[in-house]
Design a protein that fits this description.
This protein is about 75% helix and about 0% strand. The chain contains 8 helices and no strands. The protein starts with a helix and ends with a helix. It comes from Solilutibacter pythonis. Keywords: Membrane, Transmembrane, Transmembrane helix.
Length: about 260
């Protein structure tokens, strides 16, 4: 429990320090949040590593997968905040990562799955794609809020902590492109290594994942061919992400949480 509490405390401390510096209009100038975030991720990773050592295998049940995806989101946010001007995402992502780490710790560990390297490759590429595209969904929401405020000529103070609209939009599509590539890899590895992808237990997950992949692909093509942007980009991003959440976490919630209680 000490490892989990350390991760949670450090995530929250990083969010508070980051929020304070942003409130003082320092944007990314103050990096005092960075070591806190890095340490939080180290403890978060150790939380999973400790469970795997005890169980002698990877744990991929519902709350474990959520926690790992949140860890990936925290890592991407830290990277984007360090190399770019998107540190403000940490105010949202770091508390979410703390919450999912806590839920994982409270729900205990499931029996380890016997996964070969092929299925582990599929699982990890899927989790990385979910984390990346979840960041894209948050960026889409920020883009919508920023564009809406500018159209109404409501120049709130918090707008100054975000990059200009065009830069935010560019970051959004780069993140979607990266997530789309990772999702493509996850689907390809699934087709190669997962038996009976369209079987009873996996059919809905496969179909929803393919639909999400298709929507993201259409959005990227529309951006390249017709310059899609603004509300259309936001709507398609959120629709695709909703399909992806239902594909994996929706079905896994039913199997790992609801059905196991009956």
């Amino acid at each position: 429990m000490i490892v989990a509490l350390a991760a949670i405390a450090l995530y929250l401390a990083a969010a508070i320090v980051l929020g304070t510096s942003l409130n003082q209009q320092e944007r990314n100038g103050n990096r005092s949040w960075l070591p806190l975030a890095v340490l939080a991720m180290v403890f978060h990773g150790e939380l999973h590593a400790e469970a795997w050592r005890i169980a002698n295998g990877p744990d991929m049940h519902f709350f474990a997968a959520l926690s790992l995806a949140a860890l990936g989101m925290a890592a991407l946010t830290t990277l984007m905040g360090t190399l770019g001007r998107m540190a403000a995402l940490g105010v949202i992502v770091f508390p979410l990562s703390a919450m999912f780490a806590l839920l994982y710790r409270l729900t205990g560990n499931a029996h380890p799955m016997a996964l070969g390297w092929q299925l582990q490759l599929h699982a990890w590429s899927a989790l990385l794609s979910y984390a990346t595209l979840a960041i894209a969904a948050l960026l889409a929401i920020l883009l919508w809020v920023q564009e809406r405020a500018l159209r109404r000529r409501k120049f709130h103070r918090w707008l100054r902590i975000l990059p200009p609209l065009t830069e935010l939009e560019t970051v959004l599509f780069r993140t979607i492109a990266l997530g789309f590539a990772l999702l493509s890899g996850a689907l390809l590895s699934g087709a190669l290594f997962v038996q009976d992808m369209f079987g009873q237990q996996l059919a809905h997950k496969t179909v929803l994942s393919l639909l999400s992949w298709l929507v993201f692909g259409v959005l990227l093509f529309g951006r390249w061919r017709w310059g899609w942007r603004g509300n259309k980009a936001v709507r398609l991003t959120l629709v695709a992400m909703a399909l992806l959440v239902l594909a994996f976490f929706g079905s896994q919630f039913v199997y790992d949480v609801i059905l196991k209680q009956h």
